[in-house]
Write a structure and sequence with these properties.
There is one protein chain. By secondary structure, this protein is of the alpha/beta class. Helix content is about 50%, strand content about 10%. It has two domains: about 180 residues, Rossmann fold, CATH 3.40.50.620; about 55 residues, Arc Repressor Mutant, subunit A (Orthogonal Bundle). The strands form two sheets. Strands 3-2-1-4 form a four-stranded parallel beta sheet, sandwiched between helices. It has a two-stranded antiparallel sheet with strand order 5-6. Helix 2 runs parallel beside helix 3 and helix 9 packs across helix 10.
């Protein structure tokens, strides 16, 4: 999609500038993030290294017992080839110990717990190293609700949250991320059956969120069935609460204070 074609050189320069400024503002010069072996965390790794240097860029590999070996191997490969510091912690013991109390817990509940456990570890390590937790959720995932509140949607700064997944692939090519990472899946599951290429999903998000177009108009513009367009829009609308700050009960002065 031509509208989402990046000026990668300028985008990278801008992100590096923001990372340096925001991380240094808090008195730190070190980034901590989950290194999963996916394209998003690999791009974040490269950007942080460019902004802060190898010795100040920590990728943390956090597998559970059923994490595919291929994913762990890719995470190690990303750390080595991008040239950052990385370490591994297994989250299986604490997750399994907790769920001994809830053996009936389903997969989604357990995955949310794992995401929050990983983020807890990242924040603890950031405290230890006097660093900043850097997020790796892209714009597509954020709008589709493909993440966990206070899990992978928690961070101090996120350099790629304003970039669609298809733009992450563009950046990955520009940054020379290893091809075995770039060539991973380029589709996302929408509904029970359909897997849709990110290029199509990103087009729907762009036209719906940024251009305010109706589903029927989006359908004719990108040549996608309106029913499929509506499925994507439904995910956007249903995940709206995940993009909002928690509600603070604002108490009126006439209730909060005694009248003088």
């Amino acid at each position: 999609m031509e509208n989402l074609k990046l000026n990668c050189e300028k985008v990278v320069d801008f992100i590096i500038s923001v990372l340096k400024e925001e991380i240094n503002r808090g008195g730190s010069n070190l980034a901590v993030f989950e290194l999963s072996g996916g394209i998003d965390s690999s791009v974040v790794a490269a950007l942080c290294k460019m902004a802060l240097g190898k010795n100040n860029t920590f990728g943390i590999i956090l597998p559970y017992k059923d994490t595919p070996k291929e994913s762990v191997d890719l995470a190690y490969s990303a750390g080595r080839k991008i040239g950052i510091r990385y370490m591994r912690f297994n989250i299986t013991p604490q997750i399994d110990y907790y769920y001994r109390n809830f053996p009936q817990a389903g997969r989604t509940r357990r995955q949310n717990k794992m995401a929050r456990e990983r983020m807890s570890i990242l924040y603890d390590l950031a405290f230890h190293f006097n660093g900043v937790v850097v997020g790796k959720s892209n714009k597509s995932e954020i709008y589709l609700g493909e993440g966990t509140i206070y899990g992978d949607f928690a961070y101090d700064i996120n350099p790629i949250a304003d970039l669609y997944k298809t733009q992450i692939f563009q950046l990955a090519e520009y940054l020379k991320i290893p091809q075995e990472i770039i060539e991973q899946k380029k589709e996302i599951k929408i509904g029970e059956e359909n897997s849709v290429p990110y290029q199509i999903v990103d087009s729907v998000i762009y036209y719906y969120v940024e251009k305010g177009m109706k589903p029927s108009d989006i359908s004719s513009t990108i040549n996608l069935k309106e029913t499929d367009v509506k499925k994507i829009i439904d995910k956007i609308n249903k995940s709206e609460n995940m993009r909002k700050q928690p509600l603070i009960a604002k108490i009126p002065d006439e209730i909060k204070y005694f009248k003088s």
